[in-house]
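Methods — Computational structure assignment.
A single polypeptide chain was analysed. Its primary sequence is given first, followed by the predicted tertiary structure written as structure tokens.
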Amino acid sequence: MTQTYTLVINGEARQVQATADTPLIYILRNQLGLKGTRYGCGLEQCGCCTILIDGEPAYACTRAVDSAEGREIRTVEGLSGVGSDAGSVDHPLQQAFLAEQAGQCGYCLSGVLMSAKALLDQNPSPSRAEIVTALDGHLCRCGSHTRIIRAVERAAAALSQEQTS
């Protein structure tokens, strides 16, 4: 049975129509046009669909829409900010990924960016091992792992420098 759900996505309340068990990724991509979240395996094995729900990484491919109602959902489109400032300045993670040329094909990057954001929000100065652990659930098929880790390290350093300035 189709119902109306209110989702808070990238700081904006949005109403959608869906059945309770509709995967959140279908709502994000098909109803709301947020195409940054990728569909990979549909089994929580690749991490392409990772978004943040209440600041924690979550798989949008298996998360039912009813479980996300009223919670703060952040997609890669909301990484730069929310509201009128959204997208006006790249997040330090985005800047670092570009500087390190961290994506080859780029398919996994939206999920990687969201997991990296969650990590840096909780731990602004992670060790290399902590970065590797935080990104362990992401499958990168093009072999950019080393550059991805360097990019997260670079972003952490940039964020640390911003906080001390």
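Note: The mean pLDDT is 93.
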